[in-house]
Amino acid sequence: MITEEELARLVERLRHAATDGRAVEVKACEHGVSASLMETVSAFANGSGGLIVLGLAEQTGFSPTPGFRPEAVAESFARQCADRLTPPVRPDIEILEYHGAPVAVAVIEEMPPFDKPCHVTDRGRYHGSYIRVGVGDRRLTTYEVDRLLEERRQPVHDRAVVDEATPADLLDDILDAIVARQRSLHPRIFGTLSRDDSLRALNIIATGADGRPHPTLSGLLVAGNYPQRWFPRLTVTVAYYPGTCKTSGNAVKYLDSRSMAGPIPEILEDALAWVSRNMRVGGVLDGQARRRDAFEYPIDAVREALCNAIMHRDYSPMGQGAQIQVNMYGNRLEIISPGGLYGPVTVDSLGEPGVSATRNRTLAALMETTPFRDGYVAENRGTGYQLITTLLRSGGNGRPEVSDTLSAFSITFRAAHTDRLAPAAAPAAGLLDGMPHPGMPHPDAPHAESRSGMPRPIASPVESRTDTPQPAAPAVGLQDGTQHPDATPTGSWAGTSYYETPQDHAADSLSELERQMLAFIAEHDATRLPQLVAETGRPRSTVTYQINKLLELGLIERTQPARSPRQSYRIRRSA
User: Fold this and answer.
1) pTM of whole model > 0.85?
2) Could you tell me the residue range of the domain that residue 242 belongs to?
3) Using an 8 Å Cβ cutoff, are 108 and 49 in contact?
4) Which residues does the UniProt record annotate as the domain Schlafen AlbA-2 (predicted)?
5) DSSP bridge partners of 256
6) Closest by alpha carbon to 174, among 269, 314, 276?
7) Is the residue at 470 inside a domain?
8) Of 114, 264, 548, 559, most Cβ neighbours within 10 A?
9) What are 442-472's pLDDT values in tens digits?
10) Would 429 be classed as within a structural domain?
């Protein structure tokens, strides 16, 4: 309980601020306890708790209320907290002295998660629940009340059957990889189950209202060809803002903005490649005066944060209308996901051993066995935040900054050594989503940011962006007419200069996997991604990466628009 000395210091701070505090409410109570005070009690109980001081008048500079009767007011206040709130609140009330006058100080504890929301009984749960915002009380929205009610039971939105979809909307290569992984992990169980029975046991497929098999939401998210057909906002949007906020003047200004769609492995691959392409790159000198690339953000930390956002976001019907956002600014990178922290996890307990909760258990389990690059999408061992913190510290980014509300959770990475890193190259219009930054290593290669004891970054003149306009040249070599920056005229044909680019010699430096894919595409002409996955035996994300690389090199081309679910590839035809 607060002491009289602490009360005096608290009131002095309120007087200096000339208003109540976020966790403090002051009421004069000249005529007893007002009904509106129960809104404040509800707000404190639904939030992080708070302190209510009865017998001080804010209007007169937080001076004692003349004729204040502390015992009667305290009794009335306690009775209203018990009778007018559901669940009832039991405040800890003490009579203290302030400047020679009595005041009643009530401590309102935060309610356990399974008892929230605390609401004014006669207004009902959806009209009488409040939360503290700033120095005032705001009524909770229907969405926020539903999120609090989820704390009382395990959400199962991720297991919902999508009756409009069929098993044919799932990608066989991802399904086969998941089942194979489960059979290797649990041979006694999945070794005796058929493929279809395994998919049912994993809640990828379930029986719909029509008695037929249909994919679940989790099944579509990890293995659907195009889940956004039914859930158009279950995407990851990315945007790069050159300043420190989204607006410039009276308009929103961004340099690059995309929406990543498809199953989770493809969304994750495309989003990480976008971040790699847009972040700034500098040089570091090791102890032997050798230079190597250093990146503004540790890509492994970005991957971990993005996986967490996808795994733990809110997939309730109301939450399905919001997407995950990745916003890159001149000084920070933030990832925002719908729905706040779940269960016993709080901002203060993030990363603590043993403190973990999973809102979407089915999806989390599937992400552990969904193939990504040469591994799997997620581990789900409750160590993700610790890994993020370690990577950011070793990369010079400081600690992550987190914010949690009932409707959203955000994590922010501060840019590392922004005054020493060169700006990233401006995104080339028409380049395929998912291509990595030119200085970024192959997605299967270890990242320099993951190593401890990184040298400090220094600027590299070669990588610095110049604002000097460059002479235009005909667009050749890259798909969608994108000009290669190193193209130089070497001759002419029919009166038109033609250009020789690095793509003209690209085949000389292809890997064995890339040569295998090119040969297969050449043999079969219109080739789909699942065919290449089956032919190469490599994870879908790795094959996707190689396809993007071959597209950028101008060796193959699409047969359909970029986001078509019927996409296939063929050897690029000469113009």
Assistant:
1) no
2) 236-362+371-463
3) yes
4) 23-140
5) 240
6) 269
7) no
8) 264
9) 333 333 333 333 333 333 322 333 333 333 3
10) yes
